[in-house]
Write a structure and sequence with these properties.
Blueprint: H1 2-24, H2 32-35, H3 41-58, E1 68-77, H4 79-85, E2 95-100, E3 106-110, E4 119-123, E5 126-131, E6 134-136, H5 145-156, H6 158-162, E7 167-176, E8 179-187, E9 199-204, E10 210-215, E11 230-240, E12 243-253, E13 265-274
Antiparallel strand pairs: 1-2, 1-13, 2-3, 3-4, 4-5, 5-6, 7-8, 8-9, 9-10, 10-11, 11-12, 12-13
């Protein structure tokens, strides 16, 4: 009996230590050269050049030609981590994701299955859902739809969004999926804080595109230790009206791996259309 009691105490003590570390130790993606802020002006300029060229290569400099875009596809969350992290109460149906360019007004609509017709979205930071035939804004986002919609839009526009960040530094070279890459650190300051995230972009030396991104998730609504970080890989780029769009995005824990079959969730795009709906479709609750 005493032995069992000691084991129980040990388990609780371990959990307590884990929770303490999770609460106070934040994931830090800065290499030492960035932490010490000793990088040369030439390296800093090179990092900025790599990012700006990735924006041009992907055609993201043309984003202001469009008002909205619709992505139809699936966002499948797999494994135990996927089950914990998934913001959906349905099982991998086809979804229409709708976004306003350069904004966070967005919406999702389930297109099949038992939840077909379910709509949820964000307008001016307010969350709403369609319940039966009526839209309601007096509802709670208990599943993390706000975070998911914002994250997906950020990843579709990633290089352009991050090119406007004030702190950009060169990290060095690496290799991913048999391709040499240049790595660029991007954030809003040179410190580790809950106020903003860290990103490391993996830019292909030959492709010139963002092949992957490592990132922190400071405001993740799901229960995840603060010292963990994730990565998103971008594959199957296709030209849609002059913009190269990744039709497969694969999220993993930690650094991106060559084997993308091991993942937390994967977004697969079936169709991508610019300006296929008016911007006011994202405001069904009449928010001013």
């Amino acid at each position: 009996m005493k032995k069992i009691f000691r084991i129980i105490l040990l388990v609780f003590a371990t959990l307590a230590v884990f929770m303490a570390i999770s609460a106070f130790v934040l994931a830090d993606l800065r290499p030492d050269e960035v932490k010490d802020n000793h990088q040369s002006k030439e390296k800093i300029a090179y990092a900025k050049e790599l990012l700006d060229e990735a924006v041009l290569k992907q055609g993201l400099n043309k984003l202001n030609q469009f008002s909205t875009y619709e992505v139809i596809g699936r966002d499948y969350w797999s494994g135990l981590m996927g089950k914990v992290g998934s913001p959906y109460t349905w099982e991998n149906p086809k979804i229409a994701f709708r976004f306003k360019v350069g904004n966070f007004d967005s919406q999702l609509e389930v297109l099949e299955g038992d939840e077909k017709g379910h709509i949820a979205g964000i307008i001016s930071n307010d969350y709403y859902e369609k319940q039966h035939i009526t839209y309601h804004s007096e509802v709670e986002d208990n599943a993390g739809i706000i975070f998911t919609l914002g994250a997906l839009q950020y990843f579709f526009e990633l290089a352009d969004r991050l090119s406007k960040a004030p702190f950009i530094r060169y990290v060095g070279q690496d290799e991913l999926r048999g391709q040499k890459v240049e790595k660029v650190f991007v954030s809003w300051g040179n410190e580790t804080t809950k106020d903003y995230d860290h990103y490391v972009l993996w830019i292909g030396k030959e492709s010139g595109l963002v092949e992957a991104a490592t990132f922190t998730t400071r405001n993740n609504p799901k229960p995840a230790p603060n010292f963990l970080y994730g990565s998103m890989q971008f594959e199957d780029y296709r030209n849609v009206n002059g913009v190269l769009v990744p039709f497969v995005m694969t999220a993993q824990i930690g650094e991106p791996k060559d084997d993308t079959s091991e993942n937390v969730h994967r977004v697969t795009v079936e169709s991508f259309k610019w300006d296929s709906f008016p911007a006011d479709k994202l405001n069904p609750i009449g928010k001013n």
